[in-house]
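quick one before i forget lol
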Amino acid sequence: MKIDIKKKLNLAEKPQEKMLMDERLPAHIARPFELSYTYDVQSKGEFYLLKLNEKAEIPIYCQRCMQEFLCDYELESELAICPNDQIAEKYHGLYDVIVASDDVVDFKEILIDNLHLFSPQFHKKVGDCDQNQLKLMQND
């Protein structure tokens, strides 16, 4: 879903959206799922600041025990949407940066990239893993 950032500036209410995550998923995500997100856009002079909040229950293949489990996923992020590379370089140390010369960003691509970077790959605790599976893997 592509949006024009300028048209979403300083909205009184943060839009709450849902998106089916069904393509280009990390290998440790078991199947498509629905992700909810809200966002806010602010003008910062040379760039737009996109504040994004994501929530989902993600079906994960634990990379330790190889069993599927549902994981609560919540992520808050800020992205600087810059019109060119020169401005992006100035803010790269402060924010994650996207160059969008036409002020249009693809939310699905941003959400997918965040899954690749921040989605968990294991149960939070080793004790939550399938212990029988762990023993079998240790014997191999």
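fyi Strands lie at 2-4, 16-21, 33-43, 48-61, 68-82, 96-99, 104-106.
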